[in-house]
Specification:
Keywords: Plasmid. The chain is mainly alpha-helical. The protein has eight helices and five strands; from the N terminus they run H-H-H-E-E-H-H-E-E-E-H-H-H. The strands form two sheets. Strands 3, 4 and 5 form a three-stranded mixed β-sheet that branches. It is globular and about 50 Å long.
């Protein structure tokens, strides 16, 4: 698995969530199927080749399955949740870097901002030229994550929870894991 596989799987989860919430049908506003490799490329900024390879790896590892009727990739939410909760920080560790301008992540992101209080004033950010916050930089799972998160609030929340698990101590990581479990079902 590669780090972008988690990003692709979480985007697929977001698409399913949107569908179940009564959002637009299976096709986006431009007529493109958001589940297609091209649709995922557009929304995530990951090349079609990488998206296709990511889906192939996810299917091979059991992190996704093919839907019988549509042959769309369907994330295995339980496996994804367990991998993020228990394995991700060991496979794709994160460590705070130098101060930089960027997009808030982990405990500074809107999904967690009001749930935890920190003794310090430093926040974690994904380095991003259009970001407005200053904080300790954290490398995102994939370089296009800030732009993709800016376009999709659900994806932003999932990725911020993932970073909270990657960065936090046991108490913070446990809170983020519980929120992730609620959201993934």
């Amino acid at each position: 698995m590669k780090s972008q596989d988690i990003v692709v799987l979480l985007k697929l989860v977001c698409l399913q969530d949107h569908e179940h919430a009564g959002g637009v049908g299976p096709f986006g506003q431009d007529g493109e199927d958001p589940y297609s490799v091209r649709g995922l490329e557009t929304s995530l900024g990951i090349s079609k080749t990488e998206v296709a390879a990511s889906i192939k790896r996810s299917l091979a590892s059991g992190m996704a399955i093919k839907r019988p009727m549509t042959s769309r990739p369907d994330p295995n939410r339980r496996n994804l949740r367990d991998f993020i909760t228990y394995g991700l920080k060991f496979v794709f560790p994160a460590s705070p870097g130098p101060m930089q301008r960027g997009m808030p992540t982990a405990f500074a992101a809107p999904v967690l901002k009001d749930l935890l209080y920190s003794a310090g004033s430093l926040i974690h950010v994904w380095p991003y030229a259009r970001g407005r916050e200053m904080g300790q930089s954290v490398a995102p799972l994939f370089k296009t994550v800030p732009k993709a998160a800016e376009r999709d609030d659900r994806l932003y929340a999932y990725l911020a929870l993932v970073d909270a698990i990657r960065l936090g101590n046991q108490r913070e990581a446990s809170l983020a894991a519980n929120l992730l479990k609620e959201r993934l079902g």
